[in-house]
Amino acid sequence: MNFHDRVIAPSLLAADFSNIGGEVARAVAAGADWMHLDVMDGHFVDNISFGPAMVQTVDRASDIFLDVHLMISRPDHYLQRFIDAGSDLITVHVEADHDVAETLRRIRAAGLQAGLALNPATPLAAVEPFLDQIDLLLCMTVVPGFGGQAFMPEVLEKVTAAAEIRQNKNLSFHIEVDGGIDDVTAARSFAAGANVMVAGSSTFRAPDMAAAIAAIRHA
Ligand code: DX5
Ligand code: ZN
């Protein structure tokens, strides 16, 4: 996978937690490329979701690529547990309380891909010093914390600006969007320069998950 490939990553947050193995299998059968796992600590965001045990459960249930999004205040402190749990890519927030360059370095040193996220209100300048140290840039298209929120189109300016910097500096990171993604907002996000679409409600809660994923992929 490189940044020219369209990647659809259903968010487990919208799955039926009483049947995680079945839900992951359903996503894989429906054409998911990656599984997106939203880790929330009740401090960095106003919600608590799950931790490394859930990542390990999904890792044991499937071979699908695990895209782990840490919405936690101290990603440096918990990092090793998420590495050990079987993550393939770990994304940390630039706004969190850690040495960003050091955390990214540790993720890559463990043989994983490293992602860096920024909230809608955070300017692109905050992540610019790290763009040569990442495999993925996550531009949040909602204020993180909850699934089912409305897409914020103003974030697309940052997506386009990030894609321009990537081209000018000859870098090669994915650009992921997360929050309020369906076939309509995916079309706008692809056009702006994003290639990885995280989608929770519009995939897991669709009447036909395979059709929903295909609609996003071909948006
Ligand atoms: C938001 C999470 C998202 C969320 C997306 O805090 O990071 O991944 O699950 O959910 P939908 O697709 O329902 O907006
Ligand atoms: Zn997420």
Tell me the span between the first and last alpha carbons. 19 Å
Q: pLDDT below 50 for ≥5 consecutive residues: which ranges?
A: none
Portion of residues in beta strands equals: 15-25%
* Name given to the CATH homologous superfamily: Aldolase class I
Rg over CA atoms, rounded to whole Å, is: 16 Å
- State the CATH class: Alpha Beta
Shape: globular
CATH topology (level 3) name: TIM Barrel
The unique ligands bound to this protein are: D-xylitol-5-phosphate, zinc ion
Fraction in helix: 25-40%
What about the largest sheet? 8 strands, parallel
Number of domains in the coordinates? 1
Structural class: alpha/beta
- Total strands: 8
**What would the average pLDDT be, to the nearest integer?**
98
Main-sheet strand order equals 1-8-7-6-5-4-3-2
Provide a count of the helices: 8
CATH architecture tag: Alpha-Beta Barrel
Keywords:
219 residues; alpha/beta; TIM Barrel; 8-stranded parallel β-sheet; globular; binds D-xylitol-5-phosphate; binds zinc ion
Layout of helices and strands, plus pairs?
Blueprint lengths: L6 E4 L9 H10 L4 E7 L11 H10 L3 E7 L3 H10 L4 E5 L6 H10 L3 E6 L17 E5 L15 H13 L5 E5 L4 H10 L3 E4 L1 H4 L4 H9 L2
Parallel strand pairs: 1-8, 2-3, 3-4, 4-5, 5-6, 6-7, 7-8
Helix pairs in contact: 3-4, 6-8
Bound molecules: D-xylitol-5-phosphate and zinc ion.
